[in-house]
Amino acid sequence: MADDLLFSPHLTPAPLGGAPLGESRSGLGALAGMGDEMLHEFRNHLMLLLAGTTEIRATIPRTVAVDLAETLDEMDATLQTLTFLATSLTAALEPGEQMISDVGDVIHRALAIAAPSTPSRVRTMVTSRPAAIRNRGRVVECALASVITDLYRAPEFRNEKTGNANEIGIQVHPERGALTIEIESSASQRPVPSWRTALAQRLVASADGSLTLHPEKVGFLFRFE
Question: Which of 87, 98, 111, 154 has the most crowded CB, counting CB atoms within 10 A?
Answer without folding.
Answer: 154
